[in-house]
Design brief:
heterodimer, A: 4-stranded antiparallel beta sheet, 12 strands, globular, B: 343 residues, mainly alpha, two-stranded antiparallel ribbon, 13 helices, 2 strands
Amino acid sequence: MENRNKLLEVKNLKQHFNIGRGRVVKAVDGLSFDIYEGEVLGLVGESGCGKSTTGRSIIGLYEATDGEVMFKGENVHGKKSRKDKLKFNRAMQMIFQDPYASLNPRMTVGDIIAEGIDIHGLAKSKDERNNRVYDLLETVGLTKEHASRYPHEFSGGQRQRIGIARALAVEPDFIIADEPISALDVSIQAQVVNLMKKLQRDRSLTYLFIAHDLSMVKYISDRIGVMYQGHLVELCSADRLYENPVHAYTKSLLSAIPLPDPEHERTRKRIVYDRPTSGPVGKSNEDSSIPPLREIEPGHFVSMTDAELEAYQAQLV
Amino acid sequence: MAEQNSNAKAEQFDSSLFQQVEFNEQAGERIAGKSLNFWQDAWMRLRKNKAAIISLVLIIVIAIMSVAGPAISGRDAYTQTITQAKLPPKVTGLEWAGFDGMATLGETPIDFYKQKQVKENFWFGTDHLGRDLWSRVWEGTKISLFIGLMAALIDVLVGVTYGGISAYYGGRVDNIMQRIAEILTGVPNLILIILFILILEPGITTIILAMTITGWIGMSRLVRGQILKLKNQEFVLAARTLGASSARLVFKHLIPNTLGTIIISLMFTIPGAIFFEAFLSFIGLGLAPPQPSLGTLINEGYKELKTFPFLLVVPSTVLVLLMISFNMLADGLRDAFDPRLRR
């Protein structure tokens, strides 16, 4: 793992929202992780823990409160010139959560997919542009007849694939997938995830895959980061995380996965994570007492205090 | 037992009778329906709304008449002929419907055309200065329509720009712009208009200006709300991650999605403006004579309501028809554009 190139480095990313009257929501509070070229990093956590905000901050939809995002060794935030921004926009793309809201209802599917091509001037002629759109449609399993149609004529899965085609149109290296399957029917989820997997192999893409469905994340990810209240609490390879979760919150998350096995379901026990708070109960978002990540075995990081180190190491199998 | 039975049955069939069907994935993606864009779809729905279509036809007819009307009767709307003053409406063949040139003075009905020795017929009669009411009503309709249309268009132009900028930039800009708009709404409308008309010369331009000085605020609020809602939608975020410029975001993504709301609001603003002009003219703040508008005509007519009711009834009918038609059409358009029916 060490000899692979880092594509993205997130250093102490903070995203705070001012919600008026001096109150601040710390959606993301000091996040640091790396993404290596060609890997899929899954990001999981409960609703409202800051997963989506992390994705949107990285791509620059939100202006980060603090911290750095290095993409291919360059700091991508705070860039001023339009040319630099366009270059960055081509390299990093995003797939959105809600297939019903992510396509402009007044544009044809062809125009939606071609938007990146138009903005970046990637096609010299109209024919070239259309051919590229047809190619992209076929890549995601649709046909060129679909180009002249409007988004409302498509099903959720088809729309999500159109969203993928739009992201691919500018030939990015890195794609942030913001819960791309959570709004889809289970039978369609597999179709979309398999498409994403295939695209990743064929085009050597790197993904940040944000989701709350742990079984899907395990299927697609190489490494998984577990987020809790704006912090990473555990980060390691996908297999290792399921084999040997260390942090109490990770254990709690894993205990919530249902299996289609009545025998197992009968005995499955939910582990409820009760975060030890230092401050008064209910103000847990205010204090940032979640300790930093430490490496307890190669490539396995857990958020912990010095005192917890030994206890955690003893749990390793 | 049942299993044996079904096995026996299955053996009766020769496997060569069956053919394997392959699932064609491409066929599963095909869409059979006709492709309709937003406007075609809206038109299809509007067409099914009878009231809206009748209203649309009525508006078109009234608009054509307002231009062609004076030419049809061949009389000018401003020429005064005192000898032909106050003639009731008369149409050959429509005498049974009241267009008989008769009016009741005191107790007995009198044929005014005989009395004043007028040979030709005035379809809507004449006013107290002998001007042809047919020509004046259509001329007045034209002016009223023009005022309504211009006022509404200026409202849209200013309102969309103001609301759009306010919502698009948001934050502090939005805060300041909204406070300014609130102060403007706080000023009593009528007082502002009266002051305006007092300072400037009375006329069409003054009335339009007076009405638009505060009229755009409603539109700007509507557009602001829409754009605030749209600008955080994922398709706008997607365009931003693709590197779309502000102009592209506004003209390709935000405005096209607000257009339905803008048109509906425009259709409700036009009758509002026409009615407000009529109201101003009626209380004597509107157009100066001899220029006709539906308001001034009604104002003149109501003075002689008892003896010559046609002077009030004719322009009022046109006004009422216009108001109802515009409102019904706007209603129909709202249903046709209804975003809740489609996604």
